[in-house]
Design goal:
This protein is an alpha/beta fold and 416 residues long. The protein has 2 domains: 199 residues, Nucleotidyltransferase, domain 5 (2-Layer Sandwich); 205 residues, no CATH class. The protein has 13 helices and 7 strands. Strands 3-2-1-4-5 form a 5-stranded mixed beta sheet. Helix 1 packs across helix 6 and helix 8 packs across helix 12. The longest helix is centred in the middle third of the chain and has 24 residues. The radius of gyration is 25 Å and the shape is elongated. The two termini are 49 Å apart.
Length: 416
């Protein structure tokens, strides 16, 4: 570090945040270290004390360090601060040495994916801390705006403990341990540009949602759900259906449906139960009705549960969790991209905004033509998007007399 940076800033922010909104910054604690990682000073700022620029240097001679630094960079954006030139994301550094798909030793014990938060990373490096602090509870209370029951000083202490532990983790990552090699600094700096800066920018902009359509579908949820089931549940009309009229899925009814229709092979879990995740359904698209059922299942997850975090500005801001899967992909959640492509027309963009959607689901070789399945209910993702969104719009139009909105949104789907 001494040959590259004159100072190191290790920082942590605490903030309140509502679903779909940008954070409301509460406080910040930062330690300034010299080029040899020796402590120099502590910087503490509370809401109302922040200036137009950071209270520390962020130029080329300074390294900014944080755990899950995209959260800190989002706070920078909210405060109107420039990004630091150089960022070392401790979370990204930890994932680089721990994202390993390990063989399951005991098949009778369900595999539990290890946590990757700051406390878990510290434990992995043999670092203990947060004595007398219920970290999970206080973090949740601060985020929900209930920090006042702790008081300003205790919130500062909690925030500073995160910084103190981050400093210890930084030293362990730079020098390595018996279990983990020293961090590849050049690569972590490069990866952190994405995991911190790019992720914060994506989070801040959010995903614009067609709120008129979203609200109409929610207001007419019962009619929408029943129409979707009538059109896309392959068991509709049978004495026993996979879905109830209210959109309730039944594993047992699905299993019996497969037996009735002579589907003798279906991917199974080690427990013997049917595997009903998206990959299993995609493997079985050759069975008539299964692709339609998969589209229905994921559509109802959005329509019935309505768990998208949408801010007051009409934008969906899902958590991206960069590099968090075992294979190093983003582990985003509560996003339209977590669901079937048929839900993506809920996104809306101005005519001047270019939009490109790239899917890795089609693994054909470069230059070869796309493969279109030829089963009764099969079609491309875009076709499913059209089919289901046309149905949603027709139901909404009938029940709310919003034919003009329906035509306009349908035209948007057709030209997308």
């Amino acid at each position: 570090m001494s040959s590259n940076f004159g100072r190191i800033i290790v920082a942590d922010f605490e903030y309140e945040v509502r679903d779909g909104e940008l954070p409301s910054v509460l406080c910040m604690v930062a330690y300034e270290l010299d080029e040899h990682l020796r402590y120099v000073r502590t910087i503490r700022k509370w809401r109302g004390e922040f200036d137009k620029t950071p209270p520390f240097d962020i130029e080329d001679d300074t390294l900014f360090v944080a755990y899950s630094a995209w959260a800190e960079m989002t706070c920078f954006l909210v405060l109107g601060w420039k990004f630091p030139v150089h960022i070392f994301d401790l979370h990204t550094s930890y994932l680089a040495v721990s994202n390993i798909l390990r063989p399951q030793v005991d098949e009778d014990v369900p595999y539990r994916r290890p946590k990757k938060d700051l406390a878990a990373a510290c434990r992995a490096y043999g670092i203990e801390g947060w004595e007398g602090i219920d970290k999970g509870t206080i973090a949740e209370d601060i985020g929900n705006g209930q920090w006042e029951k702790y008081g300003v000083e205790r919130v500062f202490q909690y925030c500073e403990e995160d910084v103190r532990m981050s400093v210890q983790l930084l030293r362990a990552q730079l020098f390595g341990t018996r279990l983990f090699p020293p961090a590849n600094i050049e690569r972590v700096l490069y990866w952190s540009n994405y995991s911190a800066k790019s992720t914060a920018l994506i989070q801040a902009v959010g995903m614009p949602i067609d709120m008129r359509l979203w609200n109409l579908v929610r207001e007419n949820k019962v009619a929408v759900v029943r129409s979707l089931i009538a059109h896309y549940d392959p068991s509709h009309g049978d004495e026993e259906t996979i879905y109830t009229r209210d959109g309730e899925w039944s594993y047992e009814r699905f299993e019996r449906y497969l037996v009735r229709n002579g589907v003798k092979q279906w991917p199974r879990l080690e427990s013997g139960r049917l595997d009903i995740d998206g990959d299993a359904f995609r493997l079985m698209y050759h069975v008539p009705g299964i692709e339609a059922l998969h589209a229905l299942r994921e559509s109802l997850n959005v329509v019935v549960k309505a768990t998208l975090p949408i801010g007051r500005d009409g934008r969906n801001r899902p958590s991206l969790f960069p590099f968090c899967t075992t294979t190093g992909r983003n582990a985003h959640s509560k996003s339209l991209y977590n669901n079937h492509a048929c839900m993506r027309p809920f996104m809306v963009f101005s005519a001047r905004t270019p939009l490109a959607s790239i899917s890795t689901g089609d693994r054909r070789k470069s230059g070869s033509p796309p493969r279109f399945p030829e089963t009764k209910h099969s079609c491309t993702h875009i076709a499913w998007a059209m089919c289901i969104m046309h149905l949603l719009l027709s139901v909404v139009s009938r029940t709310t007399q919003t034919r003009d909105i329906g035509r306009r949104t349908t035209q948007k789907c057709e030209t997308a």
